[in-house]
Amino acid sequence: xxxxxxxxxxxxxxxxxxxxxxxxxxxxxxxxxxxxxxxxxxxxxxxxxxxxxxxxxxxxxxxxxxxxxxxxxxxxxxxxxxxxxxxxxxxxxxxxxxxxxxxxxxx
Amino acid sequence: xxxxxxxxxxxxxxxxxxxxxxxxxxxxxxxxxxxxxxxxxxxxxxxxxxxxxxxxxxxxxxxxxxxxxxxxxxxxxxxxxxxxxxxxxxxxxxxxxxxxxxxxxxxxxxxxxxxxxxxxxxxxxxxxxxxxxxxxxxxxxxxxxxxxxxxxxxxxxxxxxxxxxxxxxxxxxxxxxxxxxxxxxxxxxxxxxxxxxxxxxxxxxxxxxxxxxxxxxxxxxxxxxxxxxxxxxxxxxxxxxxxxxxxxxxxxxxxxxxxxxxxxxxxxxxxxxxxxxxxxxxxxxxxxxxxxxxxxxxxxxxxxxxxxxxxxxxxxxxxxxxxxxxxxxxxxxxxxxxxxxxxxxxxxxxxxxxxxxxxxxxxxxxxxxxxxxxxxxxxxxxxxxxxxxxxxxxxxx
Lengths: 107, 397
Ligand code: SF4
Ligand code: SF4
Hints:
The complex is a heterodimer of chains A (about 110) and B (about 400).
Chain A: E1 34-38, H1 48-52, E2 58-61, E3 65-66, E4 72-73, E5 76-79, H2 89-93, E6 99-103
Antiparallel strand pairs in A: 1-6, 2-5, 3-4
Chain B: E1 11-14, H1 15-25, E2 30-33, H2 40-51, E3 58-61, H3 65-77, E4 82-86, H4 88-93, H5 95-103, E5 109-114, H6 128-131, E6 139-142, H7 146-160, E7 169-174, E8 182-185, H8 190-196, H9 220-235, H10 237-252, E9 259-262, E10 269-274, H11 275-290, E11 295-300, E12 302-304, H12 308-315, E13 320-325, H13 337-348, E14 354-359, H14 369-381, E15 391-392
Parallel strand pairs in B: 2-3, 2-4, 4-5, 5-7, 6-7, 10-11, 10-13, 13-14, 14-15
Antiparallel strand pairs in B: 1-8, 6-12, 9-11
Bound molecules: iron/sulfur cluster (2 copies).
One iron/sulfur cluster binds near residues 43, 94, 96 and 98 of chain A.
């Protein structure tokens, strides 16, 4: 990891958070080992993954998609990898097995 | 500006009352406390001050010491000058909050009328309570007179609220022997006390206009550095404390240093003692010298952080150092906690003296002048012989 963390002199005392709202900068999804990948062709837009994800990491997007079988969907489901922690609930619950859990490649 | 220090007439006060007067003269804003023997009269007196309108403070009556320190801490974080007092089981009950207070760097001051811990139940004095709390990240003073207690509470707020320090402070004195014994004490006026120790509230205080988050969970990547900040904050304390004490002396005419060496000129052996034992030892030492025992007293005043430089300076040329502990560290190499610590320092600094560990006065077992003379003799004899085991002085076979 090449991120430089602050030294003791640079940090506020007592672990106090002095800049409000900085939790937005905290991406909680950086420690997954498996990541879900949604097959947009297989997905039937049932919304179950969106519903079960404990991290609200499934995004419902206004993104049309036409399958190879020429079926047209107005929306798509995609994963926000900044927050997905790789628990696999979505893949487990997807009724058509449209989600694959694949190993995260560490660069 | 006054050109000269005005000396005032002393009034009779117990150490507990002296502490209460100090808190009043420092104009504390919040007192959250639970009465526990032998501390009770501190908070009784303070509640009287508040009830009589002599002190404009919130007095929070809590149901336990855990709550007492929690409320004191919250008040401190909200920007108030907050005070509490405790002893024994109460201090033990606060233990969790002791770490929270120092970890959040709250400038709280707390007096401790030291007392034995259960079981069996003993309401009497020893120092097991404070020694069990020594690793909680608080600055710790031991005082040996009621006057010193009054003066030290004032110095303690200056120190705690210093921007380079921001640590809570405990001021310890012996239960009953000091807490309930009356002595002449010079009490200053509030104006000069506040001029010496003006209120400097917590810098990140809770304020809706400047929102902060206090007390969040901190992951492993950050926790260590924040704890190291506490280490560094402690490091600067001895110098700061000395400076504050010196300035206190200039203002009020009384100063103590951070470690006192009494009758040390020409002494070949030193006794390390604190609080009332140090006071009694002072009165006994002239007799010891008459008997040919050239023994000095090293009185601990600032205990955390330990004034290492002073200790090394005073002990580098003596043949024997005897440490009196009024607490037991069961099963430790030396079973007096302080002796154990000084053993480490002796190795670290390569000091040549013979170290003797004496445990005495547990549960306020009576210690008479003859006992102190006997201990002085032990210290003297230890120049030429080593006592590897802790001596449990006065325990019956
Ligand atoms: S793997 Fe878990 S966290 Fe990630 S999107 Fe699926 S349910 Fe959400
Ligand atoms: S659970 Fe499966 S089918 Fe349903 S929306 Fe999610 S990916 Fe598509």
